[in-house]
Amino acid sequence: MSENESVYRRLCNILPSLRSEYQHYTLQIDRNGTITTRLLSEFFTGTLTNKDSGEVTHIVIKVVPAFSFIKSYEEIYRNEVYLYSQIFDELNKFQKQKEVKDPITNLPNYLGGHSSANKEFIVLENLSIAGYKLYHGNECLTPEHLETIFKTYARFHALSFVYKHEYPDRFQQMANELVDIVKLLNGKELAQPIATAYSAAVNSFNAAADAEIIKKLRDVSNIREVAATGRAYDGDYACLIHGNCSMNNLMFKYSKSGDLEHIKMIDFQLAYISTPVHDLSYIFYSGASKADMDKLDYYLDLYYNTFASFVLELGANPKEIYPYEALKSEWKKYSVIGIAFGIIGWVKKLMNRDEVVNMYNQNMPRDIRIDSFRRQMLEICNGKPFTEQANAICRHAVEYGIF
User: The CHK kinase-like domain covers which part of the protein (predicted)?
Assistant: First the structure.
């Protein structure tokens, strides 16, 4: 029996694990197999049909990928199941309690899931059928997209900040249930790629014209350690963050005329409690153009104005919850994680997608997958598309006072 056939048969029996409102539905799993593969998941499609009305709900089902990235996926899926079934439900109730006029609707509808070993799955609405799309290819985000993203995360962060303010004990209980998956994964496989990409970025500067910038960049001798320090938040303004805020984890819906209408945040397996700067800097440096990096203060103002407005609607004081001055100072201290992931993120965007997946495929001999990944990575790091973007990120980091 093929791997896909085995997974298909298992998924045909997941209906009892779905939420109670879907127990009067019939489940149909597409036999065509996966629609895409990521490092921590594969996705199957299917439908749920109401036995009485005939109403059809299109779904995607996240399962453990066919290759083995890590020994156990149980904690990873437990994190996301807990977020959807407990934390997000609690935050939605909080919005209703506060009678929010325009509640947050930027999360996919969760239908059920399971996190026991070898039975992991998560069922979500199929956003593609609803008209949502991933951002195209390896292009920078447009100003319209960046504005929408910053406003969306402002409200998302504000909601958990105010909930934490009003129910600190409950918030801490929920936070204690979350596992820091990045620490669990350890990130050893990314250490050398990040160092290689950063070195290529530094070498892209003109030795004579950019001597001062090069000196400051070379003072950051171990970018991975600096990024790890930036990720270890020890401040006073922690909230629930997405944790994996890349362009691949955002889906966009457009009007018939092409205008951006709405955004959905997906893939919360790496969510944890930390500074909003970790989310914002990740998407900013992995997606912004040089022109938009020069407008960082504009985007931070936009974020904070949206944040403050929603905090006020929720009945709290934004200056007490998260002062604007804290956002600005924390950006200079903690955005280095976004810079590191932004630089390596551009390598991944320009790389053959199968190479990225194979890099983590423990079923392949380690020396073969690393050698293949390294060869393509070096080719990309020496190419103009990468060096232009990485140069812009590093120049901005120096000019803004991060390095």
Answer: 122-313
| Per-residue pLDDT reduced to its tens digit, 334-388 | 999 899 889 988 988 887 665 555 555 556 666 776 677 778 888 888 899 999 9
Q: Do 234 and 89 fall within a single domain?
A: no
Alpha-carbon distance values, 386 to 192, 213, 263, 393, 403 (Å): 17, 18, 27, 11, 20
Confidence of residue 63 (pLDDT cuts 50, 70, 90): confident
362 and 257 in a single domain? The answer is yes
Using an 8 Å Cβ cutoff, are 389 and 342 in contact? no
Q: Is the pLDDT at 33 greater than 60, yes or no?
A: no
Q: Which of 125, 143, 160 is the last residue of a domain?
A: 125
* Same-domain check for residues 157 and 186: yes
pLDDT tens figures, 314-344: 999 999 999 999 999 999 999 998 998 899 8
The residue among 101, 125, 149 that closes a domain is 125
Task: Give the pLDDT confidence of 106-120 residue by residue, as tens digits.
Answer: 999 999 998 887 788
* pLDDT tens figures, 197-232: 888 889 889 988 999 999 988 877 677 777 777 778
